[in-house]
Amino acid sequence: MTSQLFAICFHATRPSDLARFWSGLLGREPAGGTDDGITLLPPDAAGFRIRFLPSEEPKTGRNQAHFDLTSSSPQEQRRTVARALELGGRHIDVGQLPEEGHVVLADPDGNEFCVIEAGNTFLAGTGFIGALACDGSQEVGYFWSEALRWPLVWDQDQETAIQSPDGGTKITWGGPPVAPKTGPNRLYLELALPADADLEAEIERLISLGATRTDADADAGADPGAGGGDDGRVLLLDPDGNEFSVRRPR
Known about the structure:
This protein is α+β, with helices and mostly antiparallel strands. It is built from four helices and 17 strands. The protein has helices at residues 15-26, 74-87, 138-148, 199-209, and strands spanning 4-12, 30-34, 37-40, 49-54, 65-69, 90-91, 103-106, 112-115, 129-134, 152-156, 159-163, 170-173, 187-192, 212-213, 219-220, 233-237, 243-247. The strands form two sheets. Strands 1, 2, 3, 4, 13, 14, 15, 16 and 17 form a nine-stranded mixed sheet that branches. 37% of the residues are buried.
């Protein structure tokens, strides 16, 4: 049976601070708070969790993925920006033009995100987290469409986007040029299998689609860059070399 998107995970030098920021900004309730990090629960059963996992590595360079938050009106966009700043976010310059309507911010750990202007038709109906916007190739967009069995909702000029058949947040890839990876990503996807699924069969399916095993070829711990652990997650790389994990059935 196919994996489902279980969580979008952040490596964080201060998981509790980062969870507090995103909980306040998104209005999501936190759960947990153990050595394995802190989780923000989805607003409904079909949504994904957001997990903040401890890491001793400070952020260097721009992330290869970020959230795009939506706005229903100019006033709501201003309120979201003001709330983010109040919670500890800050304005940043990533080369955006003055005439562009979105606002680029960073959370307290330096992770970039955008507050999109009202009237953006591409993100209409997606919810507050409109997209997880990624640097990535067309190939990796095709991979994730097959891996999650989410249909392509955009495929043009080597830019791709997928969305769950149930709607909600889109995952997008901007096509070339793709920024080179300089180490493990700070954001990564965590997949989960139904309780009666065969883990090894699913791993082989993902590999047949273009995933590869890591050099360690072992379960991923709290830090997927570490290449090992015993918490029931298997670490793989997508066709662009981005880490993702698959949770064993529970």
